[in-house]
Design brief:
Elements lengths: L11 H18 L10 E5 L6 H9 L15 E6 L8 E7 L6 E2 L10 H12 L14 H6 L13 E7 L6 E5 L9 H15 L4 E8 L7 H9 L6 E6 L9 H11 L10 E3 L5 H5 L4 H14 L14 H40 L8 H20 L7 H18 L21 H10 L13 H11 L10 H12 L3 H27 L3 H31 L10 H20 L32 H48 L7 H8 L4 H26 L3
Parallel strand pairs: 1-6, 1-7, 2-5, 7-8, 8-9
Antiparallel strand pairs: 2-6, 3-4, 3-5
């Protein structure tokens, strides 16, 4: 067995090893393990498996081992051989989740000082309620008294980092995990097991399992390692307490010989056997060389170890040198992927930062005025259809079309027949049919109750005063016109309310978009914008009422040409329908709407009564409806657009700025208070910027490293 220290500090290999472990130390100090998978070694085992003794033998320092002070948080140990001749030194720092290392101890130059600083550091990690400085001067007794503090955690995933410069050591880095417990409550057992699994389930982790030679079959640590690494590709077994095998334990000796000779329980990285000092041997504070000599003497004098002296698998020096080489090789192979991962993570963080609202870089007054200006410009873009997204316009068009259909449904349903209910719906003139096909779906327009000759005749009679014979009273036409005009306020109000709704929703969306970054500003301006909406809605409502009032008597128009053309069209149509009622589909017990109408060749020709007055009134009223309909379906939407949407969009900026009270003595402070950013967004920005800075530092370290 090679019992020397294998000190090759002057060799090229030692230089490269020192550089690569220094790089890993720097990356971990930056908190890189929260971003990328840096290969590492994790040491696990039961509380009585010799794990602490192994850590002491590898690091050359003493770790807390008295009752009640077992490892209760991960301890990361990094050993680096200095590039120049220097003395031994050590420093202890704290690393909380996602954070860089936080210096804790001074630079220690005596190994005897390490134990108390490790206890202080572990207590600081387990006491997140207190500042780490609280524990830097505490004595052993004070630290022990804190174990009964209910605020002190039993275990933690935060790390105590121990950085050692050892001229006589070998470059290595590993993390010592809390020992697996059995004689604790179930929650505590599960907590420690979960902590161990968190580390060893990482495929970039080499698992070192400490196994007492006299208790191979009952090791929970080995079962966890097998679950995390079923093929045994990254697990190393370290057999401790080989001197615990009595002379009669020949079966156990044979088992271990078979394992070490790779005949059973095979692991790709194999097993090592280490003989560690007992309490009496530690009490005399032996040197590293003394301990190596004791171990060598033991292996030479005891079977089956004596048959394995040249295997390179016995003793701490062989173990350290080999696992250092293994870890160095794995880290070297991982460097290209680490660079790729850091680049990908950095790009992701930059994208997330860019997706956040812009940070305020100007004074509060300028910022708020700029945001109000952009808000109002955006609102104008919606109202006037200038934005790329035309949804506001599309929604408005749908509402105005529904209004158009509703007005069309108020058209007087004249039927120039004595008994109009005996017939199905009247077909309008061909020109009207073609226009309707272009404007409406088949089921859009549903006219009101039929108005026949008898009803029109009665209206004429009721309206007749001292007129001479053969004069149709204008009052009759006014009464029939009033019937459909009186129906228009309802669809007009429904149209207005629907536009108010989409305007209100648009204002909410734009308010959140432009001011949502600052909750106080959004809340304040939301109130002002709502108040303005109420004012403009009242103004628009009055303009709507005025527009409808213009349609009431006296009925007036100047579109005489269109009226005359429509009048002649309907007059001819009504006369033709009166003379040929068979063009209607009869409703009778022997006929249904699906039957074919009676043809002209077999239908009887009815007598022609004196009904010109009624038909002329029908045509006159229907023609006026057409003119008024064409007018109102444009006037109402234009009134709403101009006096509600456009007026509010055009004037809102000045109104909002006026309400800010910029002339007040306290305006600067008030506006600054309004720009208090959403704490969630603010905290996220700080986190992302911190992460970005960390990743950039990691990238620089990786890119500058040459191997």
């Amino acid at each position: 067995m090679n019992g020397t220290n294998n000190n090759i500090a002057d060799s090229d290999y030692a230089r490269k090893r020192r550089e690569i472990f220094s790089l890993v130390k720097e990356l971990r100090a930056l908190g890189a393990e929260n971003e990328i998978q840096i290969p590492r070694i994790a040491v696990i085992g039961g509380q009585s498996a010799g794990k602490s003794s192994l850590v002491e033998a590898v690091t050359g320092i003493s770790v807390p081992r008295d009752s009640g002070t077992c490892t209760r948080c991960p301890m990361e140990c990094t050993i680096v051989t200095p590039s120049e001749q220097s003395s031994w030194s050590c420093s202890v720092s704290l690393r909380r989740s996602g954070q860089p290392n936080e210096a804790f101890s001074p630079r220690l130059t005596s190994k005897s000082d390490v134990d108390i600083w490790l206890r202080r550091a572990q207590t600081a990690i387990l006491s997140p309620h207190a500042s780490p400085r609280t524990f830097q001067d505490m004595s052993y007794k004070q630290l022990k008294d804190l174990t009964s503090d209910s605020r002190t955690l039993k275990f933690s995933r935060d790390v105590v980092a121990v950085d050692i410069e050892d001229p006589e050591g070998t470059d290595l880095s590993f993390i010592d995990l809390p020992g697996l417990v059995q004689n604790e409550d179930d929650d505590m057992i599960a907590l420690v097991r979960g902590l161990v699994e968190h580390y060893i389930n990482d495929p970039a982790t080499i698992i070192i399992v400490t196994i007492p030679a006299n208790d191979m079959e009952n090791q929970q640590a080995m079962r966890l390692a097998k679950a995390a690494d079923p093929e045994g590709l990254r697990t190393i077994g370290v057999v401790t307490k080989p001197d615990s095998l009595t002379s009669g334990a020949s079966g156990a000796r044979e088992k271990w010989l078979n394992i070490l000779q790779k005949k059973s329980h095979k692991l790709k990285l194999g097993y090592y056997v280490v003989r560690l000092p007992d309490d009496d041997e530690r009490a005399v504070n032996p040197s590293r060389r003394d301990l190596e000599q004791l171990a060598t003497k033991f292996f030479q004098g005891n079977v089956p170890w004596s048959s394995l002296l040249n295997s390179g698998r016995l003793g701490i020096p062989n173990f350290i040198d080999n696992i250092s080489r293994v870890l160095m090789r794995i880290i070297k192979e991982a460097l290209p992927k680490l660079k790729e991962d850091v680049h990908a993570k950095l790009q992701e963080v930059i994208q997330r930062i860019n997706a956040l609202p812009e940070e305020v870089t100007v004074d509060a007054t300028t910022e708020i005025l700029n945001r109000i200006s952009k808000f109002c410009t955006d609102l104008q873009g919606e109202v006037y259809g200038l934005n790329d997204d035309k949804q506001f316009v599309h929604d408005s068009r749908e509402i105005y079309h529904a209004f158009k259909v509703a007005i069309q449904c108020t058209a007087p349903n004249f039927r120039p027949l004595e008994n109009p209910l005996e017939y199905a719906a009247v077909l309008p003139p061909r020109v009207e049919v073609e226009e309707a096909i272009a404007d409406f779906r088949d089921d859009d327009v549903q006219l009101g109750a039929p108005i026949g000759l008898l009803e029109v005749r009665q209206v004429i009679k009721d309206s007749t005063g001292w007129e001479l014979p053969h004069n149709i009273p204008y009052e009759a036409k006014k009464r029939l016109i009033k019937r459909f005009i009186d129906q228009w306020p309802t669809p007009a109000q429904e149209c207005y309310d629907a536009i108010i709704s989409i305007l209100s929703n648009t204002l909410d969306e734009k308010t959140e978009k432009h001011f949502g970054q600052f909750p106080a500003l959004e809340k304040r301006l939301s109130v002002d914008i709502r108040s303005e909406l109420v004012d403009y809605a009242e103004h628009g409502q009055q303009c709507l009422v005025d527009a409808l009032e213009c349609e009431k008597a006296p009925y007036f128009m100047q579109n005489n040409h269109y009226f005359e053309a429509s009048y002649r069209l309907w007059l001819s149509h009504y006369r033709d329908l009166h003379l040929h009622p068979y063009r209607y589909i009869p409703r009778s017990p022997v006929s249904s709407p699906g039957n074919i109408p009676v043809s002209a060749s077999v239908a009887p020709t009815p007598p022609i009564p004196q009904i010109d007055a009624e038909i002329m009134v029908m045509a006159d009223v229907r023609a006026y409806f057409k003119v008024a309909y064409k007018r109102v379906i444009d006037n109402i939407p234009n009134t709403i657009q101009r006096h509600l949407n456009q007026k509010m969009a055009d004037n809102l900026q000045n109104r909002l700025v006026a309400k800010l009270g910029l002339g007040g003595s306290d305006s600067s402070q008030r506006l600054a208070d309004l720009l208090a950013e959403d704490p969630t967004t603010k905290n996220l920005r700080v986190q992302l910027q911190t992460k970005k800075k960390r990743l950039e530092e990691i990238r620089v370290r990786l890119n500058n490293f040459t191997f």
